[in-house]
Write a structure and sequence with these properties.
Elements lengths: L2 H5 L6 H21 L16 H17 L3 H34 L10 H12 L21 H16 L6 H22 L11 H20 L9 H14 L7 H22 L4 H20 L1 H14 L3 H40 L1
């Protein structure tokens, strides 16, 4: 039996999907405002980069829930095929959008970048090979589509999961999570927070971030740390957003951010897994979850375009609020169209080909 057929028989956690969408929207707003406020203390969504750690924790829970008791049935190859089909079409789409955006509205001088060099950057982006050589884009590991850095680590942890982690008993996982927590705390202390992983200078911070959060998500599932609650989607959204919007303090981030990642995000995953949706919010959660990954992987080309116009028009006050709000809505619309007419058809086609082979 194929992996996709197996997964369909399991319960779906709609509220976790909804929270994933809230986190993705927070990332988009943060990236727009990042082009305006280099001083993060002025960015109301200044800690939204922690959404990546929340994504990793969700991934650990969901992957363990979906596959822990099924890897032996479907095999390593089928698991990796499933993950490739789920994740990689949008890696390619995001790279193409990044390349188009680079030529249309370059946030830098493209005259100094040769076509062969740009082609190399594009191919590395398509294949998820980190190449932090675009200095005009702050040395991002993936200059054409910066958020892809977290997908690189998602792939790595998925490979580690299918080869090693799913086999390990709970006590060993608990020990590994404790060790990963120490490494994460050190990474935060070393770079004064958990903003690293996206660039060449802090490349290994990404490993620390994915290792702890993915393992923590697995532990929530393995130990059945699911907290029954009546908070619902709205209540949990109210609990999640402050993790992204609390005041930015460069002196204390190294302490506050690990506390959120080490304890608060696993707690929210446990609450989200134990919450139920009403008929009114279920559709919102489904939509939010569906557009979360397309939004995350397709929005960054627009950030550079916005940055170009911001340099010219200097948006501030209400005009900044209006422009960022409009741009965010446009990106949600683009993400929905991308999902509906490009990503989903490609994934369905690939899944059918795999199942017929």
């Amino acid at each position: 039996m194929k992996g996709t057929e197996l997964i369909k028989t399991k319960k779906h956690y709609e509220i976790l999907d909804g929270l994933r969408g809230v986190a993705a929207i927070s990332v988009v707003i943060f990236h727009f405002l990042e082009m305006v406020y280099t001083d993060y203390s002025k960015n109301i969504f200044a800690h939204s980069y922690l959404a990546v750690d929340f994504f990793f924790c969700l991934s650990g829970f969901v992957i363990a829930y979906a596959y822990d008791d099924r890897i032996e049935k479907i095999g390593v190859g089928e698991f990796l095929k499933s993950r490739l089909i789920r994740l990689h079409p949008l890696v390619i789409i995001g790279s193409i959008l990044g390349l188009i955006g680079y030529f249309l509205f370059p946030y830098g001088d493209i005259a100094n970048r040769s076509i062969p060099e740009l082609l190399l950057i594009f191919v590395c982006s398509l294949l998820l090979i980190p190449l932090p050589i675009m200095k005009e884009r702050y040395g991002n590991n993936f200059g054409l589509n910066a958020p892809a850095w977290s997908l690189f680590w998602e792939y790595i942890i998925n490979i580690v999961y299918v080869l090693i982690l799913w086999r390990l008993p709970r006590r060993v996982l608990l020990l590994l999570t404790f060790l990963a927590a120490i490494v994460l705390a050190y990474a935060s202390y070393n770079t004064r927070g958990l903003v690293g992983g996206w660039g060449g200078d802090t490349f290994w911070d990404g490993c620390a971030r994915v290792s702890y959060s993915f393992l923590a998500g697995m532990l929530v599932y393995r130990f059945k740390w699911i907290i029954r609650t009546k908070l619902g989607f709205l209540g949990l959204t109210i609990l999640l957003i402050p993790a992204f919007t609390y005041p930015f303090n460069s002196e204390w981030n190294f302490l506050t951010e690990p506390i959120i990642v080490l304890f608060y995000f696993p707690l929210l995953v446990a609450l989200g897994a134990g919450a139920t949706t009403s008929s009114k919010t279920k559709k919102i959660c489904t939509f939010s979850g569906n557009i979360s990954y397309p939004l995350y992987m397709s929005h960054f080309f627009a950030i550079w375009i916005f940055g170009t116009y911001q340099n010219i028009y200097k948006f501030s006050g209400f005009s900044l609020f209006a422009v960022v709000s409009l741009c965010t809505l446009i990106m949600i619309s683009i993400a929905y169209l991308t999902m509906t007419y490009i990503d989903a058809p490609i994934r369905n086609y690939l899944a059918q080909k795999r199942n017929s082979s």
